[in-house]
Design a protein that fits this description.
It is built from 5 helices and 2 strands, in the order ααααββα. The chain is mainly α. A two-stranded antiparallel sheet has the order 1-2. Helix 3 runs antiparallel to helix 5. The radius of gyration is 16 Å and the shape is globular. The N and C termini lie far apart (about 35 Å). The model has no long low-confidence stretch (mean pLDDT about 95).
Length: about 160
Amino acid sequence: MKTEIISKNTLLEHWLGHRNLTRQTIDRFPEEELFNFKVEGMRPFAAMVKELLGIAVPGLQEIVDNKSGELDENLNYSTKAQLLQAWDEATPQIIELFGKIPEERFTEEFNLFGQYKSPIIHSILYFIDNEIHHRGQGYVYLRLLGIEPPFFWERE
């Protein structure tokens, strides 16, 4: 007998809550610092957001199409408004694509971006974990800039 720990819909809601919180984090940054502020060994937060945008929708599209492609995080966004618009446009795409993945495929091995072979559920969890990781870096940047980050538990 198999026991479900979390439903597919609950996982999606959890991810969307994190996306909302990351959007709030992007919005807290002043334009200049979003693209230029960094500490040694790290990238500006805008570069991290571009990575997240380059992974979520393209990764889900690969899974849905069952066709591996190449990772491209060098997205051409140069303003905060463009990043926020891209973020907002990606969210409904995530919802649609996630809905097209049958639960039976979650345990299926898939070679994401032609270089990360693991069960599909691991890739989806990576999308979420990677976002949380980079948002944490954004929180550090905001604090260094004297800006209060959003409360991490307020995901709506």
